[in-house]
Amino acid sequence: MSYVGPEFDPPQPERRESTGRFRRGPMVALVALVSGALLGWVAYEAVGSSGGPGSTGGSAGDPGSSTAAERSATSGTSSPASSSSSSGKSPSSASPGDDGKRADTPAASGPLKGKVIVIDPGHNPGNFQHASEINRKVNIGTNWKECDTTGTATNAGYTEARFTLDVAHRLRTLLQQQGATVKLTHDDGSPSWGPCVDERARIGNTAHADAAISIHADGSAPGNRGFHVILPASVHSGAADTRPIAAASHELGASIAGNFVRVTGEAPSNYIGDGTGLVTRKDLGGLNLSTVPKVFIECGNMRDSKDAALLTSGAWRQKAAEGISEGIVSFLRG
After folding, report:
1. What confidence tier does 38 reach under pLDDT thresholds 50, 70, 90?
2. Residue 181 has pLDDT above 80, yes or no
3. Cis bond leading into 195, ω under 30°?
4. Taking the CB of residue 265, how many other CB atoms lie within 10 A of it?
5. Nearest-angstrom CA–CA distance, 228 and 158
6. Alpha carbon 329 to chain centroid, angstroms
7. Does position 46 have pLDDT exceeding 90, yes or no?
8. What is the mean pLDDT of residues 223-228?
9. Are 164 and 119 spatial neighbours (Cβ–Cβ below 8 Å)?
10. HEC per residue, 221-245
């Protein structure tokens, strides 16, 4: 998600917490979870791993490697990475090359049976052709912002919208295999643009989701690397009231951040979040208007060649989906 555009203004450094009906334990447990995950990443870097940052080789700016990566985004030609889920079972039984695009029904049983999860793939590939529609202002509680933006892209032209939809498909498969009911805010050109940020929040609210996540990739300056999870601030303004879900959303975000580090080997952002991988904001309509626990994840910086090499790798996108999935599972089973 590029910070260019009204919905994605520079982050606000707010760190307020709030109690609410979703809160499950003292915030010290949340801090310990993230700290443990970051220590685990340090250990990961010390011993090295073939799946760590930069291991995909090549540059996203190389036309040949970019073309192959973009093919894998739509055809799923890369083999998924393997890892263990928090339930002790393989997180995916999909065959190699399955990008999770099929809208399979939930498994008959599993640790997430009865849970509803909403996945919001950031932006929409069709937004580029609907400038007037996505520029329409909507109320996000604290103020008015454009309906949506086009998102960012790598230097080679692999768009954030394609990336987010690919990861969303993979994540959906993983969660369905564990029994969850999964809803996407948009999928494969339906609708042809948007939906607007307020409608994205409303989809999760109407589904009474147990957890919701919006998937993005950043468009920051070259040299800025790593992922970060965006948490909702405690907002009470106009149509926005995140006070009941702020604490649970922070817990969800910390769980996703910790598992994302462990599974992908991607470092927390070196340019935002003070190395924690967590950022609190009050200016995003998708969070402000949510009545269910919800976070955003910026999986990496598309404008940095090293991060872009990861984001354009089908195998790494599978790891990203697995890290997010395991974070959601851990949150819902906690």
Report:
1. low
2. yes
3. yes
4. 22
5. 20
6. 14
7. no
8. 98
9. no
10. CCCCCCEEEEEECCCEECCEECCCC
Is the Cβ–Cβ distance between 250 and 27 less than 8 Å?
A: yes
Answer yes or no: is pLDDT of 68 > 90: no
Given a contact cutoff of 8 angstroms between Cβ atoms, the answer to whether 294 and 245 are in contact is yes
**CA 175 from centroid of its chain's CA atoms:** 14
Is 322 within 8 Å of 241 (Cβ atoms)? no
Q: How is residue 13 written in tokens? A: 């450094």
- Cβ of 316: how many Cβ atoms within 10 Å? 25
DSSP 56: T
User: What is the distance in angstroms between the CA of the first residue and the CA of the last residue of the chain?
Assistant: 29
Lowest mean pLDDT among 69-73, 183-187, 202-206: 69-73
Q: Which residues contact 222 (CB under 8 A, 6 or more apart)?
A: 303, 304, 305
Q: Which residue type sits at 318?
A: Q
What is the residue-wise DSSP string for 154-222?
Answer: -TT--BHHHHHHHHHHHHHHHHHTTT-EEEES-BTTBSSS---HHHHHHHHHHTT-SEEEEEEEE---T
Q: Where are the beta strands (DSSP E) in 239-308?
A: 240-241, 278-281, 294-301
80 Cβ contact partners less than 8 Å away, ≥ 6 residues apart? 92, 94, 96, 98, 170, 315, 318, 322
Structure-derived torsion over alpha carbons of residues 267, 270, 271, 277, reported in degrees to the nearest 10: 40
140 in Cβ contact with 288 (< 8 Å): yes
Give the Cα separation of 289 and 108 in Å (integer). Answer: 33
pLDDT digits (tens, 9 = 90+) for 134-166: 999 999 999 999 999 999 999 999 999 999 999
pLDDT of residue 17: 32
* Residue 135: per-residue pLDDT: 97
- DSSP per residue over 105-160, as a string? PPPSS-TTTT-EEEEEESS-GGGGG-HHHHTSEEE-SSSEEES-----B-TT--BH
Q: Which token pair is 324?
A: 């997010």
